[in-house]
């Protein structure tokens, strides 16, 4: 189905044509008509499915159909997202879609000074894209009012709840115009997401564009078994020998990200890093240089898993497997987007075999393993058996140790009793 089928304004059609959009994705085909009809929408969609356009395009059209002057410190649409990166990416997309429309889009997130944001908010905006924490700060500071909001979008709702924004979201809901249209997009329909939907929505149109926790068929997934201490060496070798030009690498911690960036640069591979401790300006610069090809590798922590949209990204590397199996799906969703092919590589050490098994169970497939000569590790099946036998042995040993400890304790007690008895008899003899 093509976008022309839904009678978008010529200005919008021209803009999305310039974005290279032709056919609608499944989530767009289902969500756009429901939003145009004014229904609340509860949608499950994985990353890379085109969900930003699924809610942004019909909102833009409805604004054109019902023009309204935006007053000072007011907005017509509010989009909440979990991270700064995602907020910036959504703003870029909407600005592209609204290229030929006279609309003001404002982004609000932490990591930058509030003053410039406050100035823009007080002038009024048609669309505000914000992270919950910073938006709440502006509400408390009376920099904006949400009483005229017609459209409220919660994007990556499950991620916002996982990150602890539940209380902030509840406070924001209290401040938003009650007569509004609600759109909630989430990768999963967790219990918390369902409860939030029940609280804020009226007879929502429920859409599930994808089976939950599935990976895109456009992404080829492989596993490289490797000892933890040799991961950096293997990554450098693969990038060099296979001539990878644009690689997004995920690490488990900020320290690991910083260390890897330093070592790859020493190997002569231009590398930048983004994580929560980096200033927003530094993160934007790193992402820009990576997109422009000035940096060959971008190292990131989980903060970037759902917030980065890099057109044509071919390679995603899980240098460390994520703590949660579900996050694997979101990480590799950075590649293979919009119908293009991509490759997801996971480095798996002996200690991560159990996590890999959890991931394979979640996505319903066993990943292809590639052993590189010189980097071999022990058999995965043998390792799992060893882990199981160790746990079984540990339980048996604990029982033996407990029994042994009890026997020793009893012997010690008997010894103390004998010693006390002998001591008492000696005292009695001495008295006599």
From TrEMBL:
Keywords: ATP-binding, Cytoplasm, Helicase, Hydrolase, Nucleotide-binding
GO MF annotation list: ATP binding; hydrolase activity; nucleic acid binding; RNA helicase activity
Pfam families, A to Z: DEAD (PF00270), Helicase_C (PF00271)
Annotated region (Disordered), positions in chain: 413-432
Coiled-coil stretches noted in the UniProt entry, renumbered to this chain: none
Family in the record: Belongs to the DEAD box helicase family.
Protein name (record): DEAD-box ATP-dependent RNA helicase RhpA
Keyword Hydrolase: yes
GO CC annotations, alphabetized: cytosol
Gene Ontology biological process terms in this record: response to temperature stimulus; ribosome assembly
Location of the motif Q motif: 1-29
Catalytic activity: ATP + H2O = ADP + phosphate + H(+)
Highest taxon, organism lineage: Bacteria
Domain DEAD-box RNA helicase Q span(s) in chain numbering: 1-29
Species this chain originates from: Shewanella pealeana (strain ATCC 700345 / ANG-SQ1)
Occurrences of domain Helicase C-terminal (ranges): 218-383
EC code: 3.6.4.13
Start and end residues of each Helicase ATP-binding domain: 32-207
């Amino acid at each position: 189905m093509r976008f022309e089928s839904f009678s978008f304004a010529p200005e919008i059609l021209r803009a999305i044509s310039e974005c290279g959009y032709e056919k609608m994705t499944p989530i767009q085909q289902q969500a756009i008509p429901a939003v145009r009809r004014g229904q609340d929408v509860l949608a499950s969609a994985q990353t890379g499915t085109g969900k930003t356009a699924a809610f942004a395009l019909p909102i833009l059209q409805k604004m054109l159909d019902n023009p309204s002057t935006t007053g000072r410190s007011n907005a017509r649409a509010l989009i909440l997202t979990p991270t700064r990166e995602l907020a910036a990416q959504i703003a870029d997309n909407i600005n592209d879609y609204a290229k030929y429309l006279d609309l003001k889009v404002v982004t609000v997130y932490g990591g930058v000074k509030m003053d410039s944001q406050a100035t823009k908010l007080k002038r009024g905006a048609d669309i505000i894209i914000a992270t919950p924490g910073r938006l709440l700060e502006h509400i408390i500071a009376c920099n904006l009012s949400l009483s005229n909001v017609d459209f409220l979008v919660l994007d990556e709702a499950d991620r916002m709840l996982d990150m602890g924004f539940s209380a902030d979201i509840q406070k924001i809901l209290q401040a938003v115009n009650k007569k509004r249209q609600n759109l909630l997009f989430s990768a999963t329909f967790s219990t918390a997401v369902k409860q939030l939907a029940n609280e804020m929505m009226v007879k929502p149109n429920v859409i599930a564009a994808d089976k939950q926790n599935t990976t895109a068929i456009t992404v080829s997934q492989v596993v490289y078994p490797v000892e933890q201490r040799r991961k950096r060496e293997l990554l450098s070798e693969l990038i060099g020998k296979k001539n990878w030009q644009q690689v997004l690498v995920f690490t488990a911690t900020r320290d690991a990200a910083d260390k890897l960036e330093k070592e790859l640069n020493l190997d002569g591979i231009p590398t930048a890093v983004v994580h929560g401790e980096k200033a927003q300006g530094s993160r934007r610069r790193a992402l820009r240089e990576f997109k422009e090809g000035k940096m060959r590798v971008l190292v990131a922590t989980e903060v970037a898993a759902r917030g980065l949209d890099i057109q044509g990204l071919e390679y995603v590397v899980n240098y460390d497997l994520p703590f949660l199996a579900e996050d694997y799906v979101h990480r590799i969703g950075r590649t293979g987007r919009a119908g293009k092919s991509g490759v997801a590589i996971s480095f798996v050490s002996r200690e991560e075999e159990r996590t890999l098994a959890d991931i394979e169970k979640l996505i319903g497939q066993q990943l292809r393993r590639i052993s590189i000569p010189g980097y071999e590790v022990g058999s995965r099946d043998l390792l799992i058996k060893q882990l199981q036998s160790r746990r079984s042995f540990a339980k048996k040993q604990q029982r033996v140790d407990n029994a042994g400890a009890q026997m020793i304790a009893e012997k010690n007690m008997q010894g103390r009793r004998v010693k006390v008895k002998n001591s008492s008899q000696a005292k009695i003899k001495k008295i006599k």
